[in-house]
Amino acid sequence: MRFEQFGGDSMKGWLFSGTNKPLELIEKEDPKAIPGHVVIDVKAAGLCHSDVAALQDPGWMPLFPNGPVIMGHEFAGVVIEVGEGVEDIKVGDRVGANPMDRETKITAGYTYDGGYAEKVRVPAHQCVIIPESVSFVEGAASTDAGITAYRALFSIGQAKEGTKLGIIGIGGLGQFALQMALIKGCEVYATDVSPGARKLAEDLGAKKVYDTVLDMKEAECDVIVDFAGFGQTTSDALEAVRPQGTVVIVGMGKLESNINTYLMITKEIKLLGSNGGSVEDLKGVYDCFATGKMSPNLITIPFEEIDKGIEKLKNHEVKGRLVAVFE
Question: Which of 61, 122, 171, 211 is the most buried (most CB within 10 A)?
Answer without folding.
Answer: 122
